[in-house]
Give the backbone structure.
Amino acid sequence: MNRPPVLRYFRIKNFETFQHYKDRNPPWIKLYARLWRDRDFQMLADNHKAHLIGLFSLASQYENRLLADESWLSRELVVTSKLDMKALEDSGFIVY
């Protein structure tokens, strides 16, 4: 018997601190200046920083519950460089 694949999700750690709106599907999100001073953020490669900021926006649309499917995420974020979910997980910004 074939079983459907188990879907895996992740979330942005402490997303509520980056989210201005409490209702869902906001027209914009806040990007706080303190993020640029965060050492973990500074240590990310530039493309990982851009991907993470895109994930913040995407998380606001999906109640901070994102499908851990790199091909779907790449399409949603409209990125051309490979997503490195491991680097974002290691940085502590995303949690499963």
